[in-house]
Amino acid sequence: MDSETLLARITDYANRPNPYPLYAELRESGPVVRQADGGYLVGTYHEIAALLHDPRMSVDPRTRGEVTHKPPFLRLDDPEHHRLRTLAMRPFGPPHSPGRVDAMRGEIDQITKELMDSFEAGRQIDIVDDFAYPLPVTVICRLLGVPREDEPLFRAWSDALVAAADVRPEAETTETDKAGDQARIEMGGYLVNLAEQRRGNPSDDMLSAFVNEPDPALRLTQEELAETAVLLLIAGHETTVNLIANGVLTLLRQPEHLDQLRRDHDLLPRAVEELLRYEPPVHIRERIPLADIDVAGTPIAQGTSVVLVLASGNRDAMRFHEPDRFDPTRPDNEHLGFGSGIHLCYGAPLARIEAQAALGALLPHLGTARLVQDPPPYRQNAMLRGPRHLPIQL
Amino acid sequence: MPGDLKEGRIVIVGASLAGLRAAEALREEGFTGSLTVVGDEPHPPYDRPPLSKQVLLGQATADSTGLPMRRDPDADWRLGVRATGVDLLAKQVLLEDGEPLPYDRLLIATGTRARPWPNPEEALLDGVFTLRTREDAGGLAQRLAAGPERVLVIGGGFTGSEIASACRERGLEVTVAERGPAPLVGALGGTLSKLAAVMHRNHGVDLRTGVTVTALHGNGGFTGAELSDGSRVDADVCVVALGAVRNVEWLAESGLAAGPRGIACDAGCRAFNMYGIVTDDVFVAGDVSRFPHPLFGYQMLSLEHWGNAVEQAEVAAHNMVNPGPLQRPHLAVPTFWSTQFGLNIKSVGVPTYSDHVVIAQGSLEARRLAMVYGYQGRVTAAVTVDMAKSLDYYRHLIETAAPFPPPTGAADRAIAADVPIPSDVPDPKGLSHGPTVALTGYLPDRRLTVVQPTG
Prior knowledge:
Chain B: Keywords: FAD, Flavoprotein, Oxidoreductase. Chain B: This is FAD-dependent oxidoreductase. Chain B: Residues 336-413 form the Reductase C-terminal domain. The structure holds two protein chains of two kinds. Helices cover 46% and strands 8% of the residues of chain A. Chain A is α+β, with helices and mostly antiparallel strands. The model of chain A has no long low-confidence stretch (mean pLDDT 93). Chain B is α/β, with parallel strands linked by helices. Chain B is 18% helix and 31% strand. In chain B, the strands form seven sheets. In chain B, strands 3-2-1-7-21-20 form a six-stranded mixed sheet, with helices on one face. In chain B, strands 24-25-28-27-26-29 form a six-stranded antiparallel sheet, with helices on both faces. In chain B, helix 1 packs parallel to helix 7. Residues 443-452 of chain B have low confidence and may be disordered. Classes of the chains: A alpha+beta, B alpha/beta.
């Protein structure tokens, strides 16, 4: 059966520029599609949403005995997940730090402006390297309290970790996993060391808040702090860069919508939501059932890999009217771009502000800009999909 | 001609949440005719949930809860005007100022009002409040801000519990008198009501259960109350939280199926007349309606839920401007939420339509849990405490009539999840406040009797 090779074809780098026809094939093959390796793919909106909310679906790699160390909260089930996510949320969002993210708007605008200072008409720039990458990196560094000049250091770790987290069926992964493990340990040590320097001497950043928490019941252990800080630093920029780059690419491909946004800046928040539906940064998440389950009539045994293709759910005509159309005025846009359920993206409020600020600032420059290369070269990663470079002529 | 339904005269009686959302939805649906909204309060539509929470905490003022308009419904607003009747034959709404208001289609969304203290003289004492309107909330908030010695709350339903929570958060002494065995027992059943009682007491509420208030005392100003157990509570503020009364009296002579439990309508929000015949041009939405729901045995449901008002208004509006074959049923699964004592409580389904419950995730001890309710082997409701993101999963179980107890396997599943226990939903007659969800076709307690053999 051809549909049994869908995951292999989706993760095949040759299909990275446009996986959407494969997603359409996935949805046409049924809500639950068995793969040759025995796992399942789910690409329809309602089934994905239901599985994301299903408390029997585990994200913990230890469920399958893959690792022995305790993962970060992104890969933990409740109640452990809830405890650690709640602790990680204390210095970041409501109810304990309600204004934290919103208060960064001005700073984000300022960083955006500084990055654009070098943009001149007629010049060629790389949206990824010159803008979409440095913006979220600078923001997350300030938020966490990581020196911006250490970027080359954590970029290498981050690359190794993200590569290890990708979905790679039929690939020899031992080396990648080993490199990922090594990077995780080194990066964790680096961040814990940074945090320790702030113990008793806090500044206004999240690492300081973590190590200076007065209530012992609300403190992270050193291992938990390492895992959490690594997660926040990586997730804080690896996804937003794709959101911004995918956004610029989408708008340059659709000049009528670019014009529409240039005329009506108030549409920006909704346009960002539509981008999260239409070209989301996170395409795939995996879950493991803790019990034998039934999904849309298909029995799935405990412990089987269930790959949720979020980006396919976002293009499901059973949920969205004309799903393949980019429509920045789309009402009722409850996309899966940030996932859903208990693992709903922790950084979503920050990502929204960054994307709105970035695209809003770029809009005046994009009217006369053109794509140098379409499709642009993509990153290797199938799970976190986005251009590696996006050269445009201003 | 179907096209005619987009034109003509539509009158909405009731200018609160359901009335406003219906007006907006009518325009969304392409209605181009004349639209009149009648409301007896002088204010434009406002939101009520903050009145018992943020307003009492002093975080928002009572007049700041106006409902945002999603679009201008381009309506003729007749505010501060009471409707006094309907002439179904002449197709007119009668207003208190004597002017008849002709309609082609009518939507009734008159909602509920606070059930008053039964003794009118005692109710007039200064310091005795009910909590339903913006004025109520403003007056009570002002009194709480002045720092009373003690507040007496009569009734431990959602409103009463939220008021008690707000008082404690403000550092005020508060006594709650509840006729049933625990707060929230009428809405959530026995097991969760135990958690509610613990939360009240842990937060310093003087909780009295199994008692009624027999008299309010005062000479001009409220000074205290007598309880059925012979005790006395000295307090200078009293909030009567005895549930709500449906605003149907104005329809007494109308020939519509309007009674104390609301106005009966079909699943398409079309009102029944007193003979059970469906009307073609009178629709009902929101708290004042009672409608059949297939997930709950086609029992007539009446709900005092924010979400129900919105969803039912949208269905009613759709059906008012579309011909029969294109009309939609109102089948939304009921949901509601409450915040009190630092807990976020959310419910989906109808917890009172149950015979058993299990704690499917979390635990009472952790104060974070999902409790699932079943009726005759089928999942009919779930309530989460600080676990709101699980709600959609349980909604899906309810919608698909999944077997009860629910499937096992959740990572944070409680050991107790293997042991269904009686849901212990009391007879509403034993509660001091009216239920916010009522199955008006039968009394659920009749089927909830559990015989425990002794010896």
